[in-house]
Amino acid sequence: MNFETLLYQQEGHIGTLTINRPQALNSLNETVLKELKSFADQIKLNKDIRVLIITGSGEKAFVAGADIKAMQGMTPKEATDFSIMAQTAFNSIEELPFAVIAAINGFALGGGCELALSCDIILASEKAKFGLPEVTLGLLPCFGGTQRLPRAIGLYKAREMVFSGEFYSAEACREFGFVNRVITPEELLNEAHKLAATIASRGPVAVTKAKQSLNTGIELHITEGLQQEAVLFGELFDTQDHNEGIGAFIEKRSPDFKGE
Predict the structure, then answer these.
(1) Cα dihedral sign for 168, 171, 176, 179?
(2) Mean pLDDT, residues 164-175
(3) Residue 141: is it exposed, middle or buried by C-beta count within 10 angstroms (0-12/13-18/19+)?
(4) Is 112 exposed, middle or buried (CB count within 10 Å of its CB: 0-12, 13-18, 19+)?
(5) I need a labelling partner for 183 at 20 to 30 A (CA). Which of 53, 123, 163, 194 fits?
(6) Lowest mean pLDDT, pick from 1-5, 50-54, 184-188
(7) SS3 45
(8) What is the reported pLDDT for 1?
(9) Where are the beta strands (DSSP E) in the chain?
(10) Are the C-beta atoms of 142 and 124 separated by less than 8 Å?
(11) Cα–Cα distance between 190 and 172 in angstroms, integer?
């Protein structure tokens, strides 16, 4: 896959996607958003991938937000279309059928914070800063922030972050509940790969269905969510991975999952 603003590497079952606009702190313009959507559409068909890591190029930023200069002079219709383009791209990341880990190496502001929220797990450098500063520009978070953030940390804390537009440390965001771990900058990617390797060693079909149960179940009444959980559990009994996992447990050996 060749992109203008993205770099992609794959080692075994683990892929690493890097937003690569370091001169602009990896800010999101139309090109980046279109390429993210195209990337997601392609990578979801890759049967070898079990975990994707997303990070930013350089030491300063994961993604420092949307490209503000690119938004100057937009009409209301153009602004709405820009928002929908970004939401569509981030939805495509969120809906990937495998685990997605955000490795936040610096600023994750505005669209960068919203991109992180579309991932399944967030690991952050001690130097990382999060925030939704759109109100300081007379705007509001429009790449999913007003929807995903309250689902992640609750409405009241989300209101504080959105209304204030302030920046928050990685440790504060871990306490809020949407950053999983805070790691030294030097070890961030190593730790992301360690976690990715652990997840990749598990039954990939099981991880896919667990992700489906978690992501859709949270929007359902618990009765419907439990019913969905039971159905997905039952579906796994029709997979080779299920036979391998149980067989390996009984035989006291490590399973060799094929994703079938």
Answers:
(1) positive
(2) 98
(3) buried
(4) buried
(5) 163
(6) 1-5
(7) coil
(8) 77
(9) 6-11, 14-19, 51-56, 61-63, 99-104, 107-109, 121-125, 129-131, 167-169, 181-183
(10) no
(11) 22
Both structure tokens of 154: 């609750």
Catalytic sites, residue numbers = 114, 134
DSSP-derived pairing of the beta strands 14-19 and 6-11: antiparallel
Query: Which CA distances in Å does 186 have to 8, 9, 14, 29?
Result: 21, 20, 20, 29
- Please give the backbone phi and psi of residue 55, each rounded to the nearest 5 degrees, phi first: -145, 180
User: The tokens of 167 are what?
Assistant: 């920046």
pLDDT class for 167, splitting at 50, 70, 90? very high
Model pLDDT for residues 62-87, shown as the tens digit of each residue: 999 988 888 888 999 999 999 999 99
In the numeric block, the tokens 């952050």 are attached to 124
Strands 167-169 and 99-104: unpaired
Q: What is the DSSP letter of 132?
A: -
Tell me if 180 sits within 8 A of 119, measured CB to CB: no
**In terms of Cα–Cα distance, which of 11, 123, 132, 157 is closest to 64?**
132
Q: Which residues of 147-162 are buried (b: 16+ CB within 10 A; e: fewer)?
A: ebbbebbeeebbeebb
The amino acid present at 222, given as its one-letter code, is I
Count Cα atoms within 13 angstroms, Cβ side, for 174.
13
